[in-house]
Amino acid sequence: MEKDDLEIKNKIGETTFSIAIINECFHMVKVMKKNDNLLTLKNRHGAIPVVVASLFSAKEMVRHLHHKTPIEVFKPESDDRSGATLLNSLIVDGIFGINISESEIEGSGESEGDLESNANASRAKTHCVLIIFIRNLIKWLVPDIKKIHDAKLSHDQAVEHIRCIFKEIPRLNKKQLEMFGLDKAIYDAIKHGMIEFIEEIMKLYPEIIWRKDEKGRTLFANAIVLRQESIFAHVLRLGSKQRVALLQHDIFRNNLLHLAAKLSPPSRLDHISGAALQMQRELQWFEELRKILPPKFEEELNENNRTPASLFSYEHEELMKEGERWMKNNAASCMVVATLIAAVMFTIFLKSNAFLVFIIANSISLFASSTSVLVFLGVLTSHYAKNDFLQSFPAKSILGLFTLFFSIVTMMISFGSAIFITLQARLAWVSIPFIVLSTIPIAILRCYSSLS
């Protein structure tokens, strides 16, 4: 086969070389590289081989071809967009460092000759071989350390890439920043809680704190809308620098308190179990912003003629109803259990000469279950006002569940002591398995609490 034959494309616009790259056939790629034009030959989509490899997530092939492809192709000054496409694909696949692979260290005969003729290159080769040996040894002995190392290395390299990109931002004009998609990138970083991204861009481009997106919202405003505590706290620590950002309004005439009144994204609410606790979290955000912002913000109207308080009630109407149902169902269920415990503790062994442990455990269980019944009865008879979800309901739920759990524990102690008293005279050994079995419900509850 002649060299030119390797450049022939099939019906879908791919050469034999690009197909070998997609399938990561290193042997075929090495054989075909005798035609240097293949490294820069584009397919029908305008992608050169190394970009094709990156688009198909062929990581090792990317590392192999990156060193062989002419550097001029990747330079920003070139009309070719291969460099930008490759960078984008590498970031998506998490390839933040192009390292020397073992096959490249072994190299061909020509490259080995060059290394032997150069003392510095020889030392570099030895050093790389040593690094690979240590890396493989660590990977074989302690895989977890290797995973941690790779994750940390990938994170550090990603941050370094971010710094390089952000250094170019001050040189770009408004139109270029829009083409660059800066606002979308910042929004996505806030949405996913990428605090490192925000910290780096604020260091290299401090004016970003006052920049508004298409909705007229600043970085601080989006942190409030998306309920990102870490980014919110970081911007808040800037002190006087963030005061101007606090006074901004978006294109809908919403101030920051209006934005705090909006319902959280589902991705943030899903992290909190129970509609009542979700409502509590929403109220905490709103009250925290109310303390920080000027009092006049509470009376301002947005384009829908709503104050922040009225907007909060409107946005959280369904969540309040769900919270009310959740509290009632939870309280009713716990009341049934607590009432049963109180009834059992009051009737069992009423005519027996109980042991001191049984009497104490029985009395405590009766007191705790009765307290739980009264607490949940108070929840069921509440008015379910908006502010009740902030402190009242969570506090009552915690107290009711604690006393219910405590009554279950003391009930088990009472049960175990009663079994022991009843059987110790005739079958003392039988009481031990029963006592052990009585602890299983508590252990199961503890395991479920740890997993949730």
TrEMBL record:
InterPro entries: Ankyrin_rpt-contain_sf, PGG_dom. The keyword Membrane applies. The chain crosses the membrane at residues 330-349, 355-377, 398-421, 427-448. GO terms for cellular component: membrane. Pfam families: PGG. The keyword Electron transport does not apply. Residues 349-421 form the PGG domain. Keywords: Membrane, Transmembrane, Transmembrane helix. It comes from the Eukaryota. PANTHER family: CASKIN, PGG DOMAIN-CONTAINING PROTEIN. This is Ankyrin repeat family protein.
